[in-house]
Amino acid sequence: MNDNTEYNIPTWQTERSEEVVDCRIFTVRHNFSHIEGSERKGDFYVLQSPDWVNVIPVTPDGKVLLVAQYRHGSGAISLETPGGLIEAGESPEDAAARELREETGYTATSFRVLTETDANSAFMTNRFTAVLAEGATQTDPTAWDEHEELEPHLVSLEELPALLKSGKIRNTFSVLPLTWYLLERATSS
């Protein structure tokens, strides 16, 4: 959580919150809020969801494993990093290992958090964590959810910037970790 003491901006206080709809992976809440000590009040809608993780699987020969899958929001096939919801009591690294194995059949020798951000603090409550998985090799069959169908794609590090710039990789939860990974590699060499 951010330390708000360094800013001279009032924070809104939630008087009450009502669940509007439960959509399986998130709920919509209607918050009735005010700024303490003022007449300012407002109604706000927020999506409440578990935290999310995306994983950048890197093979021993330096290739990055991406997956293609249909996305209902965009109505198109999306090339992206494997990822999903972090289950209750699960660390981001454990969730990354589980999602990687379920979606691709790959396991990795090490997992490390690259970055953690708010998914979209304007109206979402969850956090997003990007995890680097090194030494990724295929060890198991996939274990997709009933609504998933994915196609794995191994790409070289040299291909990633062009895929990002061209918009072939456009899912924010994939663009952010891949850009962070490329930035980390560029500044460490």
Plain-language structure description:
By secondary structure, this protein is an alpha+beta fold. Helices cover 20% and strands 41% of the residues. It has helices spanning 92-104, 160-166, 172-188; strands spanning 12-22, 27-35, 41-48, 52-58, 64-71, 76-80, 83-85, 106-107, 110-118, 127-134, 137-138, 150-155. The strands form four sheets. It has a four-stranded mixed beta sheet, sandwiched between helices. Strands 1-2-3 form a three-stranded antiparallel beta sheet, with no helix packed on it. The longest helix has 17 residues, at 172-188. The chain starts with 11 loop residues before the first strand and ends with a helix.
Low-confidence stretches are none
CATH class of the largest domain: Alpha Beta
Strand elements, count: 12
Number of alpha- plus pi-helical segments: 3
Please indicate the count of domains: 2
Estimate what percentage of residues fall within beta strands: 35-45%
Rg over CA atoms: 19 Å
Relative helix content? 10-25%
The CATH architecture classification of the largest domain is Alpha-Beta Complex
| Overall mean confidence score, pLDDT | 92
CATH topology of the largest domain: Nucleoside Triphosphate Pyrophosphohydrolase
The biggest beta sheet reads: 4 strands, mixed
Structure class: alpha+beta
Q: Quick one: overall form?
A: globular
CATH homologous superfamily classification of the largest domain: Nucleoside Triphosphate Pyrophosphohydrolase
C-alpha termini separation: 32 Å
Which sequence of SSEs, written as H and E, runs from N to C? Answer: EEEEEEEHEEEEEHH
